[in-house]
Amino acid sequence: MEKEAKKEAFRKYLESSGVLDALTKVLVALYEQNDKPSSAIEFIQQKLGGPSLDEYEKLQAKFSDLQIRYDELLAVHQEKSQKVTIMYMLFCFPYINLYI
Q: pTM for the full model?
């Protein structure tokens, strides 16, 4: 009995969160395709909003490139921030020897 209650609770969860409706719509769309796609999984992923494997790999490559660029810009920013801080200290406190 407890197992049935868990199943029913899970079914209600899927229904209330919209999963059943989304899956039903995708499966109906797949069924109604005159020319069935070679990969039903890719069709379902595409319809549910996920990128294809090719798109995912391109996004991963772009992310890697952007991460490298971000790291480069962050290093430049940190270097410039240090220089600005030193210049500020020299301007505001000319009597302090920063090279001790």
A: 0.47
In one-letter notation, the amino acid at residue 100 is I
In the chain, how long is the greatest CA-to-CA distance? Answer: 83
What letter does residue 97 receive in the DSSP assignment?
-
CB 21 within 8 A of CB 29: no
* Model pLDDT for residues 3-61, shown as the tens digit of each residue: 999 999 999 999 999 999 999 999 999 999 999 999 999 899 888 887 778 888 999 99
Q: Number of H helices and number of E strands within the chain?
A: 4, 0
CA dihedral 34, 40, 43, 48 (to 10 degrees): 120
| Nearest-angstrom CA–CA distance, 33 and 13 | 29
Q: Is 79 exposed, middle or buried (0-12, 13-18, 19+ CB in 10 A)?
A: exposed
